[in-house]
Amino acid sequence: MSTVTLSRHTSPDFFSRVVEGVAAFFEAVGEGRRIAQRYEALSRLSDAALATRGLTRQDIARVAVNGR
Fold first, then answer.
1. CB 50 within 8 A of CB 57
2. Could you give the CA distance from residue 63 to residue 8 in angstroms, rounded to a whole number?
């Protein structure tokens, strides 16, 4: 009777890609939080304060995502 042993060898490349993927995920989460914070800060401003910055309410989302 013969025995067959299956072994799985995972390359270091696989782990590097997993780590990079996890790091990219947390980086994206952080960027999302920064966008949300910018949006909230701008949305709290009055129309006059926005106008002083050259913005309108319609500009808030774009500026929050893209910066100025």
1. yes
2. 49
The residue written with tokens 């910018």 in the block is: 38
Parent domain of 45: 20-66
Structural domain tally of the chain? 1
Predicted local confidence at residue 11, as pLDDT: 72
* pLDDT tens per residue across span 43-64: 999 999 999 999 999 999 999 9
Beta carbons of 38 and 64 less than 8 angstroms apart: yes
- Whether residue 27 lies inside any domain: the answer is yes
pLDDT band at 1 (very low <50, low <70, confident <90, very high): low
pLDDT at 10: 62
Distance CA 7, CA 52 (A): 66
Q: Confirm whether 51 is domain-assigned.
A: yes
